[in-house]
Specification:
The chain is an all-alpha fold. The chain is built from 2 helices and no strands. The radius of gyration is 14 Å and the shape is elongated. The protein starts with 5 loop residues before the first helix and ends with a helix.
Length: 52
């Protein structure tokens, strides 16, 4: 199973919006969620690095 980074997912969502598959409102909501996940992931990685 391939894993996409949040940046890759964001790029695909922008492309989907440009092609008319998702609305601007959906794009903005999803990008906001992605940004929150990126923040959570960053904090998690920092905590892991500080323990090891």
């Amino acid at each position: 199973m391939a894993h996409a980074s949040t940046y890759e997912v964001e790029t695909q969502l922008i492309i989907s919006n440009n092609l008319g598959y998702i609305s601007v409102e959906d794009l903005e909501s999803l990008v906001e969620t992605i940004n929150e996940l990126q923040k959570i992931n960053y904090v998690f990685q920092r905590k892991l690095k500080s323990k090891y």
